[in-house]
Specification:
With 455 residues, the chain is α+β, with helices and mostly antiparallel strands. It has 17 helices and eight strands.
C-alpha cells in the first residue's frame, strides 16, 4: 500500500484533468475581459497572458504546503486552491504596476461584502480588493498579486491576477528557477539568497535607468539625440556583457574580454531602428529579450547550427558567408560573437546570419558610393568595377582572420578607405576598360591602404 499523500495527490490530479478543458475556457474569458478593461481605461501594457495549473506544479505545491493535513480530501483542496488559473499583466516599468492596478481598482467598483469587488458589466468575475496592494512576499519583496473568483453555476473557480513589470517578470523567473525549483541541496543557501537579493536590486536599478531613458525620448524639449543614442548603446552593451559573462562563467568556467563584440552587435542592432521615435519601442523589446536570455542555458562549448543553408544574392556575400561559417565553429571568439548576435537578433540563426552579411556588404561599400560609380560608368560597366572593389575587400577579410575585422570601428575605417577609392576612380578613369587596364596596380594600392587600417 502506497503513502496516503500520494493517493491524495493522484486524486487531485484526476480532478485537475477533468477540470482543465473548462479552466482553459475560463482563463481565455478572464484574459479577454481584462484586455477590454485596460483598453477602455487607455492604460498601456505590454502583454496579457494566462495559464492553467499544470500537473507537476500541483503535485509539488501539495507537498510543499502540506495540504494533506489541511484538507479532508482532494476535492476540498481544489476548491480552495487560489491559483488554479493564473492571469498576468506585464507592463514596462515598475512605476507602471501601480498605474495598472489603480485602473483595475477603479473599474471594479461594486461590492456586496466589502471583500470581493466587481463591475456591473460582469458580476461573475470578482477581485479580492479588500487587501493592501502590493503585498509582501516571503522573500521580502513586494508584488501585485490579487485573488479573484469566477462564478459559474453554483461554484467559484479561483484565479490569481499578477501585475508585473519586465524587471519583476525576469526576477520572478530567475528566483523560481534558482531557489524554488532547485531541488539540489545547497550548502551555501543563505549566500545564494543574498546574491538573489543583490540581483533584484541591480534589476531595479536597471529599471530606473531605462525609465529615465524612456522618458527622455518622450520629452518634448530639445536635447542632443546623438548623445542619447550613444548612451543607450553603451548601456545596452553593458547589459549584454554582464548577462553573457555570467553565462560564460557557468558554462566554461572562465570569462574572456568581449566588450568590443557587445558594442558592435548593439550598434548594429540600434542602427536598424528606423527613426528616433522608434527608439523607446526598441528599448522595450531589447530589454524583454534580455530577460529571456537570463533564464536560458547556453553551452559555450557547442557548435552553432543553422536551420538551412544561407542564401546570398551576390558573390561577395557568398564569399564572406562561407568564410565566416568555417571560423565560427572553429575559434571561440568567432563562435562567441555570432552566438551573442543570434541570441539578440529576432530572426532564425540563418536569417540573422544573412542579414549581418548584408550589413557588412552595405557598410564597407555604401549605396551612395555604388550609385556614384554606376552614374559615371553606366549600370553594367559600373557593376564590374563594384565587383572588383568587393574582390579586394574580400581578400582583406580572408587575410585578417581575427574577429576584430567585424568590429564597427574596423568596418567604418574600411568604408572610409573605400569612399576615397571610389572618388579616385570616378575622377581618374573615363571608362571601365581604362580602369581594367590598370586593375593590378589598383588592387595593390587598395590592399595596402586596407592593411594600414589595422597597423
Amino acid at each position: 500500500m502506497g503513502l496516503k499523500e500520494f493517493e491524495f495527490i493522484d486524486n487531485a490530479v484526476n480532478i485537475l484533468d477533468d477540470m482543465t478543458p473548462m479552466l482553459l475556457d475560463i482563463a481565455d474569458e478572464i484574459e479577454t475581459y481584462f484586455e477590454k478593461i485596460l483598453q477602455e481605461k487607455e492604460q498601456e501594457y505590454i502583454s496579457m497572458s494566462s495559464r492553467v495549473k499544470s500537473e507537476s506544479s500541483l503535485r509539488e505545491k501539495i507537498i510543499r504546503n502540506r495540504y494533506l493535513v489541511k484538507f479532508d480530501d482532494a476535492s476540498e483542496m481544489m476548491d480552495f486552491l487560489p491559483d488554479l488559473i493564473g492571469i498576468r499583466i506585464e507592463c514596462r516599468f515598475i512605476e507602471e504596476e501601480n498605474k495598472v492596478y489603480r485602473a483595475i481598482r477603479r473599474y471594479f467598483n461594486k461590492t456586496d461584502d466589502k471583500v470581493y469587488y466587481y463591475n456591473k458589466s460582469n458580476k461573475n468575475i470578482q477581485l479580492k480588493l479588500s487587501e493592501k496592494q502590493p503585498c509582501r512576499q516571503k522573500n521580502g519583496f513586494e508584488i501585485y498579486k490579487i485573488d479573484g473568483i469566477y462564478k459559474i453555476l453554483n461554484r467559484n473557480i479561483n484565479f490569481e491576477l499578477q501585475i508585473k513589470s519586465m524587471v519583476n517578470v525576469f526576477w520572478g523567473e530567475i528566483e523560481h528557477k534558482v531557489i524554488y525549483k532547485n531541488n539540489t541541496y545547497l550548502l551555501q543557501d543563505g549566500f545564494i539568497k543574498d546574491m538573489m537579493k543583490t540581483i533584484k536590486q541591480s534589476l531595479t536599478m536597471i529599471d530606473k535607468q531605462l525609465l529615465s531613458l524612456y522618458k527622455t525620448f518622450h520629452t518634448p524639449h530639445v536635447f542632443n539625440r546623438d548623445i542619447s543614442r550613444s548612451e543607450i548603446e553603451k548601456l545596452f552593451a553593458k547589459f549584454v556583457y554582464d548577462i553573457f559573462s555570467q553565462k560564460m562563467l557557468q558554462s566554461i568556467g572562465f570569462i574572456v574580454d568581449f566588450k568590443k563584440p557587445c558594442e558592435t552587435i548593439i550598434g548594429y542592432s540600434l542602427d536598424k531602428v528606423e527613426s528616433e521615435e522608434k527608439i523607446p519601442e526598441y528599448m522595450l523589446s531589447e530589454f524583454s529579450m534580455f530577460g529571456q536570455i537570463v533564464t536560458k542555458d547556453i553551452d559555450f562549448n557547442s557548435e552553432i547550427e543553422f536551420e538551412r543553408e544561407p542564401v546570398f544574392r551576390r558573390a561577395f556575400g557568398e564569399r564572406l558567408g562561407t568564410m565566416f561559417r568555417k571560423r565560427l565553429n572553429t575559434e571561440f571568439p568567432w563562435n562567441l560573437f555570432f552566438r551573442i548576435l543570434f541570441e539578440i537578433e529576432p530572426c532564425s540563426n540563418t536569417g540573422d546570419f544573412e542579414n549581418f552579411i548584408y550589413y557588412i556588404r552595405d557598410t564597407v561599400l555604401g549605396g551612395e558610393a555604388r550609385n556614384e560609380i554606376k552614374e559615371k560608368f553606366g549600370r553594367e560597366e559600373g557593376n564590374k568595377i563594384i565587383d572588383d572593389i568587393y574582390d579586394v575587400i574580400g581578400d582583406f577579410f580572408e587575410e585578417v582572420t581575427g574577429i576584430e575585422i567585424l568590429y564597427k570601428e574596423t568596418l567604418d575605417k574600411i568604408a572610409a578607405t573605400t569612399d576615397d577609392v571610389v572618388i579616385y576612380i570616378c575622377e581618374n578613369y573615363d571608362s571601365c576598360e581604362e580602369f581594367e587596364n590598370e586593375i593590378g596596380e589598383f588592387e595593390s594600392v587598395f590592399s595596402e591602404k586596407l592593411r594600414d587600417i589595422l597597423d
